Amino acid sequence: MNRQYSRSTYVALWVGLGLTVLAIVSAQLGRPLIGEHIRSGYPSMPQDEITSGVNFYAASLTIVGVLGVLGWVATIWRAHRGSRRIRWAAVVLALTGTSVAAFALLVRDTSGDTGLPPLIGTIGLLPCAAGLIAVVLMFTRAATSANNDPRRLHRSPRARTA
């Protein structure tokens, strides 16, 4: 059985992929923001340790983002191919991504502040919203039966009413 998803499902998947790329870019461009956040939590920390922390956060967020991009690409490709199990794989990926992003946003370090600046953590949650929307769309009846009769696409409007 070849599942066909609605156009809005694919839009949500592509938007999620784009937002994941945006999150990766923001992790790299947000290095000064991350550095200031670490410095505000640890004012006596030497600059080389702050730089090390910034590099760790930026690398971690980039690796997680690249894994997210791979998940989006695989989901889009499998949905396009009509995979039966992609809906459940999308659920697992969405829940995993949301858990990791929520952890990154909310985890506290020893200073009592969050490990990441709130802006960077919030940007990391944006792809999760698109993923959850895509999962909901994948499970709606209209999305999974968008075109049950492919012959109808090739008929003229008058032939459909006959």
Explain how this protein is built.
- It is a single chain.
- By secondary structure, this protein is mainly alpha-helical.
- It is built from seven helices and no strands.
- The longest helix is centred in the middle third of the chain and has 35 residues.
- It is elongated.
- About 5% of the residues have low confidence.
Secondary-structure element series: HHHHHHH
**Helix segment count?**
7
The averaged pLDDT comes out at: 87
Strand content: under 5%
The total strand number stands at: 0
**Helical residue percent?**
over 70%
Write down the overall geometry.
elongated
Query: What value does the Rg take, in angstroms?
Result: 21 Å
Instruction: Catalogue the unreliable spans.
Output: 149-156
First-residue to last-residue Cα separation: 28 Å
Strand-pairing-aware structural class: mainly alpha
Described by strand count, sense and barrel closure, the largest sheet is: none
